[in-house]
Protein: Band 7 domain-containing protein
Amino acid sequence: MNMTQARLLVAAVVGLVAILLYASIHKIEEGHLAVYYRGGALLTSPSGPGYHIMLPFITTFRSVQTTLQTDEVKNVPCGTSGGVMIYIDRIEVVNMLAPYAVFDIVRNYTADYDKTLIFNKIHHELNQFCSAHTLQEVYIELFDQIDENLKQALQKDLNTMAPGLTIQAVRVTKPKIPEAIRRNFELMEAEKTKLLIAAQKQKVVEKEAETERKRAVIEAEKIAQVAKIRFQQKVMEKETEKRISEIEDAAFLAREKAKADAEYYAAHKYATSNKLAKEYGPVYTLYFGSWPTVVLHGYDVVKEALLNQGDEFLGRGPLPIIEDSQKGHGIVFSEGERWKLLRRFSLMTLKNFGMGKRSLEERVQEEARCLVEELHKTEAQPFDPTFILACAPCNVICSILFNERFPYNDKTFLNLMDLLNKNFYQLNSIWIQMYNLWPTIMKYIPGKHREFSKRLGGVKNFILEKVKEHQESLDPANPRDYIDCFLSKIEEEKHNLKSDFNLENLAICGSNLFTAGTETTSTTLRFGLLLLVKHPEVQAKVHEELDRVIGRHQPPSMKDKMKLSYTDAVLHEIQRYITLLPSSLPHAVVQDTKFRHYIIPKGTAVFPFLSSILLDQKEFPNPEKFDPGHFLDKNGCFKKTDYFVPFSLGKYTRFGQLLASLNYVLRDPLMQSQLIELF
Structure:
């Protein structure tokens, strides 16, 4: 063998080996498994992705996909229950074969299992579905359900026949319908649409008719409800009028009786006091039951006690009917540091009221306008002004306390007025006098004194309800009224367990404001009107001065007071002449006190006899006569006098004087408006 032959042999061997290697080495892609056949028999061990070697020519392989794959079945015929043949253009089946099931699936259904198994099942299940439904159901009503129905049916069969083969989704395209059938179907659908539209129109008409019927029913019910409300309103108005009339009647009778009693008592007391003063001097002792009471008669002795020795006479005299209810709380019947603290706070709050909001004077002016409007409503017909004149000052106190005024026919306001009026006029009753003399015994005896205490509690509860409302909307930076200021002070001192700023003192202070500011002002207004009617020459001078200084289109204010000398003199003379308080509330000495040449034991009650000052003949010539000249000098200017003490002297009087000076603004509009001519 020569060299050439040897080379040819080597080349042939190398070529044969290369052919054998090429035939035996094969590649399996990722996501596939290889199944092998040897001599036509399926081997049990599939191979994974990568390069593998097999016996060439004897062994063959098929690659089987084990990831998601989509098989398409096209042009599937389907007969509906009505005998119409339709064709589904394309059905896509998304499936995945689990690697562990490859051998069993290929063994049972060959490597082309999708054609031998899935395609056949698709044809079978689709025909089952179509044969059970009409063309309209298949094409329209149930078409959206075909995908899910085929998926569930296929998966159910495959779970039994081919475990490991899962159907992920089935997507069916809209079927093709023969043209003639399609046109008939469209015509049918058009007719059906017309019927539906007609039916909808009918429903709309029926609905509109029903709506109109309901509207008519609602309108009728509304008219009936309005009529009922108006009827109830009229009934309520009648009841309110009846209630007002009852209150007015009761108040009138009580006032007349109280007035007669008070006038008799004042005259008798004044006469007796003058007689006793002439006999025993300006300081003498009376016994009320077993209680010794020192009476001070005349300006000099009252001034000496309440001003010069004011700190020694700073106690409150006994008034058990009030003390047992208020228990030393509030301003009027408290003593010591509590009285000083609450008095200072109340004076500062009222003087500096508003803090950028409405001032106290503006509140009084607003109520004065409302009072004048109420009087105008009488249209110059005779009427009793007592009730209206009592409402106005009470509403001023409501505005101070609650930042709220009430209509004069408001039920809540009427109840409050009823509580205040009945208690004020019951103070002179025999039951209250007996209680004040023998409180220990009277506590256990039934009688009208218990109604008095109950009404005091009613006023207190009314104020506490308003306090609750204020607590919910309190803004300490913007106080609206007295309650807001007091609540802010409570919040400031919440860590002081002994603080006198608490809800009990707030409620009693509010009650004291009603007591100090309501009846005194309304009585002064009532007497003022009577005196001006009785003295038309005084009325004319007041009108002339008001018209000249202020005019008729501007309300008076405190700043105008200095310019209204005659009007101011009239207001002072009214208060002097009527001597609203013949004696002030009882004082008491806080220690054993030497007064003039007497020793007054600690706790002894002291009565300053104010009428002895207001009716002093030396200071006021003809004191029994109504004469504004008592407060005018020779030039017609207002003349101040220390003998003008309508409330008292000393520290106790300042709170009442503040309310009285503010109610100057409430009294002036009555004179300014000439409404006194109505009476």
About this structure: Confidence is low (pLDDT under 50) at residues 661-679. The chain has 23 helices and 16 strands.
